[in-house]
Design goal:
257 residues, six-stranded mixed β-sheet, 2-enoyl-CoA Hydratase, Chain A, domain 1, alpha/beta, single chain
Length: 257
Amino acid sequence: MSGEPEVLVEERGRVLVITLNRPGQKNAMTLAASRIIAAAIDHLDSSPGLLVSVLTGAGGNFCAGMDLKRFADAGERPALPGRGFGGLVEAPPEKPIIAAVDGWALGGGCELALACDLVVASAGARFGLPEVKRGLAARGGGMIRLPQRLPRAVAMELLLTGDPIDAARAERLGLVNQVVPGATALEGALELAGRIARNAPLAVRCAKAVASAAPGWPQDEVWRRQAELSDPVFASRDAREGAVAFAERRDPVWTGT
């Protein structure tokens, strides 16, 4: 596998599939892989024909976090300025991204999943932030996002013990959208991505933008700021197409305009 790219990027219709491709190292993140992911995200957001992405890992695991051997040997940190770990955690794409998690999502791998909008996990998946066991801190979003996604007591349990949780518990807590059997997380994520991709591109992008930003808006500005993002959607050709298609009882044909 050493001659293959560390990340594989593939367009499947309107879905961009990004596959971490270091299975022998449980897809531990490197600086080179971070750069490829960042470039893929730029391609996703700039391509009108792509509406959603799926992030997954090869060889039965999602991502074991930072490559600790490279960190120990050369001090390599797989983060990019302004983008963070994996070229993703500080600057997720404007379009939806789904994590398809098989096996381990540890440390930075768990933080990659937290940076995604939705998570589909196989029954054998495990999520954890073991940084405290390595003398490190979960600064790729774990300490920030986990308390926002889970009850505080549970988030603190994961952060302070470094112990992982399984997919079933992650689903019960709302960290995972769907648990699928076997090692079929990618198939489940692609099915979910297809459901998203059938919708109007401008509306989907607006929904993600408002839902992501609104928690940080001042309360007296939320409606104005929402209007700034949603008014162009209501004024779009696709808005009219959606209404006409509904009246004519046919599937809409979106143009993204």
